[in-house]
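This section describes the prediction task in plain terms. A model, or a person checking by hand, is given the sequence of a single protein chain and must write out its three-dimensional structure as a string of tokens. No templates, partner chains or ligands are provided. The sample shown here is typical of the held-out split.
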Amino acid sequence: MAFIETPIPGLLIFEPNVYYDERGYFFESYNRQVWQEAGVWADFVQTNQARSTRGVLRGLHYQVAPMAQAKLVRVVEGEVLDVVVDLRENGPSFGQPFKIRLSAANKRQLFVPRGFAHGYLVLSEAAEFVYKCDNFYSKSHEGGIRFDDPTLDIDWEFDLHQVLVSEKDRALPFFGQHRN
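The expected answer:
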């Protein structure tokens, strides 16, 4: 299993060892011991799954303390452009976005530490997105940032006039106006 560091401290890409044969394939999508040996001590308590069609953009979402969440995200069908923004105000990468293509084909996963906004855009005809969280969802602790914030200038690799975004996500504040 390979852990790949990103330019943002604590944000890790995980590439599992995949074993193929005439029956198909097998891989461990998560093993607590392996992750702890890599320095990740998240205790996942909730797993969520969403299915969306091409052009659906979800995000950028986060939760504030004491209900902040670290996430382990992956795609089990299709392909998405996964995007995070570092909201850790005292860190060297505050306000820095990071993006990666996650797909059922590449089987990559992204570990997103607490203190990040997260979102994704479906690039395939449909996608199923699964994520483990190390804290429970709390509506009163949720926050978000506009996906099209000009300060962040995220290249979603898609015509933003063609995306399907919820009214709730379109009403999110811009970066710098978000709650911490």
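For orientation: The chain has a mean pLDDT of 95.
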